[in-house]
What does this fold into?
Amino acid sequence: MSYTCYYCNQVSEQAHSITIYDKDGVEDRLELLCDSCYEDWLLELKG
It folds into this structure.
């Protein structure tokens, strides 16, 4: 199965699923990220 990255639209055989919450802490949506975008997302969380 192929996945398309939410941010860069790269097609990949594997993806990382992340949950995005709204400002009230309610689940807003799921996003699929490729390895590169997932790594960038993790680094952004670490600050």
The helical segments are 35-46. The longest helix spans residues 35-46. The chain has one domain: 3-46. The two ends are 33 Å apart (CA to CA).
